[in-house]
Amino acid sequence: MKLLCSQKDLSQAINTVQRAVSQRTTMPILKGILLETSGDKLKLIGNDLELGIETYVDAQTIEEGSVIIDSKLFGEIVRKLPESYIHIESDEQNNITIKCEHSEFTLKGHSPVEYPQLPELDEGLLYDIEPQKLKDMIRQTVFAISQDETKPLLMGELFEIQGNSMSLVALDGYRLAISTSTIENTIGDISVIIPGKALMEINRTISGEEESMSMSFTQKHALFKLGSTRIITRLLEGEFINYKQIIPKDNSLVVTSSRRELQDSIERASLLAREGRNNLIKFSITDGLMIITSNSEVGNVYEEVNVTLEGGNLEIAFNSRYLLDSLKVLESEEMNMYFSSSVSPCVIKPADNPGYTYMLLPVRISSGS
Amino acid sequence: MKLLCSQKDLSQAINTVQRAVSQRTTMPILKGILLETSGDKLKLIGNDLELGIETYVDAQTIEEGSVIIDSKLFGEIVRKLPESYIHIESDEQNNITIKCEHSEFTLKGHSPVEYPQLPELDEGLLYDIEPQKLKDMIRQTVFAISQDETKPLLMGELFEIQGNSMSLVALDGYRLAISTSTIENTIGDISVIIPGKALMEINRTISGEEESMSMSFTQKHALFKLGSTRIITRLLEGEFINYKQIIPKDNSLVVTSSRRELQDSIERASLLAREGRNNLIKFSITDGLMIITSNSEVGNVYEEVNVTLEGGNLEIAFNSRYLLDSLKVLESEEMNMYFSSSVSPCVIKPADNPGYTYMLLPVRISSGS
Predict the structure, then answer these.
(1) Taking CB atoms and an 8 Å cutoff, what residues of chain B touch A106?
(2) Chain A to chain B, count of Cβ pairs less than 8 Å apart?
(3) Which regions of chain A carry the CATH code 3.10.150.10?
(4) How large is the average pLDDT for residues B329-358?
């Protein structure tokens, strides 16, 4: 293999495919990136067997070929090289030479023969979505994914397409986040579970400047296409919880407040809460005023937030972290909270985005605590 | 105690004095900040018995008094409060109330009675120095301080004033950094050893926007005054190494190069070096060309840097980290390196700052390695 490409393009491409390279694998070849000439392009692939990312950079191919190069070292070297042209060459023993201006590196590579192939996906039927829209949907739900390895399905998000409506759903047993939006075309309904790690890497890969993005699904895999980058993830296999049943229909109490004011007050209250039990903060809600309190051995906090309340007064308590996780990812100025009782879930909706729902369970408190 | 002050001023003052508060102390009172009314000011002190920082903020004192408040929690609370006026009150049981707009915190404080006093220093004789100048001198030497607790004197820097010349000297047995500059006035000669931690905190406290700064010394302490902030540190007691004897006088070889190019090449070479032994990189210097190489089990690197050389050719090796530590803190475009042999120390001087000297020992290499 022998080729020339630009340092800037190559550095960016390595950053992209590196997201699928695991440093913790026991298979040394998976710590590498596949480099392969492909016409006037250089193809790069990172693959940890769950998630694979493939991308291309413009290159002048002098001699065709392919090689596996250590991902971390290759990334560090290319990042430190001057903004110029890089000459990459590999021989039959997979010795790799990287030259750029006054620098020359020689590294030992691996044979690409044993490198796992990315699964083939039919790209005939592609769902189109705005990249920024998908990025927002992931960001507003992914924190609610479970970290509990005994519940592997909850370590992913339900990815549902019905007509041209698309929903992402994450839940961990304490809270549930749903983001619903529209896709550009209608092909057929889909219901799959995508691992949290893949969603986070898709989120990072989308810069927000891309104009279009498309998706394709098989029984076992999902493909996300973004420009010349293809992200392929294995799906989690099984039946996702019937989340629609969980969301309370009876919401007799509706609280409306400024999101920013509420977030600031909860953040301050949680400074004391986190030192206590379960990040517990208590809410006492009347029309006009929400009082937030938290007590711990180091002190007490009392916060007032202006609200409007439809329905009767309410006393309720939450884990402050679960509330903040959601408030932090919303942009709306105004938000609504729906309650039915102090032991029933609370539903949060931003005023400007009816497609977003966050539900969380309260913490039961005895009247004396 | 009862007072009003601005959130912004108070938050900044807490950040300043917190630098002298240790979280690892076994004396709970030292995890606190002393708050004390002082006319139309609030005085704040942090003190870990080695380093003490005192500062003042404008305040409207309603009732005089003082209290110790947990530094970490107080800082977090004030940082999160809105940019408004903060009301602070403490009672005889040292219960503290902090109010700001719609927030109210109550915390348990400590009695200030047992809080250690800052040492009294005569402020009659003050040495004046430009704050930015002192900041640069610290930054360009402090990395060469020893981390070896068996050599406590080398964990500080020699602080020498002779006439109106001031030098900071740090050395750790492998390298030596000296920064010399002028102070504004001449009072008397001084030679003290200031702990590295104090120097780093002085460096952080100087924002670079201050107009003036002054210093005072006793047998046991040094005082640095910056606006309304006083930093007082204990001195390290003992005799500093006679560093002037160490610096080689015979420098028959002089290499001149671009600092930036040399730094970039060494940074790339060290990508492979750090995986090998002692961050070893080798230099082969002839007039016109410096060749930098490094070899490890993962690969080799070869770098060329344009240089001019006065004197004979030279082969020499260094720990790349020790070289980079110095190159990174210099701003000059051009730099000179002085050598006498491959086993003698190298002296580095930026072309635009004759007051700065960095000396480092080479790594001995056998001809075969």
Answers:
(1) 299-301
(2) 80
(3) 2-114, 127-244, 247-360
(4) 95
